[in-house]
Amino acid sequence: MMPIPDYDQIQGAPKPQPRVIAIIPAYNEARFIAGVVLETRRYVSEVIVVDDGSTDRTAQLAQAAGATVIRQPRNMGKAEALNAGFRAARELNPDVVVCLDGDAQHDPADIPDVIAPVLEGGADVVIGSRFLEKRSDIPGWRIVGQHTLTFVTNLTSGIKTTDSQSGFRAFSPLALRALRFHTGGLGVESEMQFHIQKAGLKVAEAPINVSYLDGNKRNPVVQGLQILDSIVSLVARRRPLLFFSMPGLILAVAGLVMGVDVVLTMNKFGILKTGTAILSSIAIIGGLMLGVTGVLLHALAGFVERVRSEVDSAVAARLEALK
């Protein structure tokens, strides 16, 4: 009996198309959402729009354009919108998930380039970067702000990217299962970088085009400070030794140096440098307190992470048993 050839070896046989799911978080994007959905549908199998408590017609227009719409009961922030989208996408068993914004700043025509490294097995997360190539339509103030936030995020997360704040990203099924977000408000992209590093996911970048059609919906200075605040909070929670103990060590060493100077001056000249002695004591005590705080929070963070992991595993097992 002749062996039956594999499906993909049959001459001219069409190859199965990958299942690509797009997730679009949206808040009051009635002006753009229908066009974004229609254009995105050209490159994906299904579009999921997460309406984050919009007060306009975002949900209705997205649904009319052919998207599956998940409506949040109120404005809960981008992190919760992504969590909701990820939960829905997991049920669809995709080969790759791609996220983009609902304000038309991202070009859906870039989707094939962004998802390619995941489909080829070279990455678990692909970040669509605005800065891999020169883009003349990016305002100068935005470039400075984004590079500053990227530098801080890279330094504290341990992962090097060129655009840590990009919302245009692709995720493998492994990343889809591994990632959960907790940051309120802005800063979810920075939080994602911490989770990626901890989960050991492979990261790649792909160049994208952007167009800022909606101007500045938020004050850029306020937005940047909010993201920076989120990054600082993340570092405090995720890297307490870095955030507390390292400054504490530096402060304690500085206090010791001042203390040595006080002792040497006293022995040599018989003069007590009272101000320096007080500063030395404050620095040493403060440094020790920061150091102990960092160690305790590090231990507590590890315990909380273990409990959260066990709860997630138990919930996943329960859901699997109910299917």
UniProtKB/TrEMBL annotation:
<feature type="transmembrane region" description="Helical">
    <location>
        <begin position="241"/>
        <end position="264"/>
    </location>
</feature>
<dbReference type="GO" id="GO:0047267">
    <property type="term" value="F:undecaprenyl-phosphate mannosyltransferase activity"/>
</dbReference>
<keyword id="KW-0812">Transmembrane</keyword>
<feature type="transmembrane region" description="Helical">
    <location>
        <begin position="276"/>
        <end position="301"/>
    </location>
</feature>
<dbReference type="Pfam" id="PF00535">
    <property type="entry name" value="Glycos_transf_2"/>
</dbReference>
<protein>
    <submittedName>
        <fullName>Undecaprenyl-phosphate mannosyltransferase</fullName>
        <ecNumber>2.4.1.54</ecNumber>
    </submittedName>
</protein>
<keyword id="KW-0328">Glycosyltransferase</keyword>
<dbReference type="InterPro" id="IPR050256">
    <property type="entry name" value="Glycosyltransferase_2"/>
</dbReference>
<dbReference type="InterPro" id="IPR001173">
    <property type="entry name" value="Glyco_trans_2-like"/>
</dbReference>
<keyword id="KW-1133">Transmembrane helix</keyword>
<keyword id="KW-0808">Transferase</keyword>
<keyword id="KW-0472">Membrane</keyword>
<feature type="domain" description="Glycosyltransferase 2-like">
    <location>
        <begin position="22"/>
        <end position="172"/>
    </location>
</feature>
<dbReference type="InterPro" id="IPR029044">
    <property type="entry name" value="Nucleotide-diphossugar_trans"/>
</dbReference>
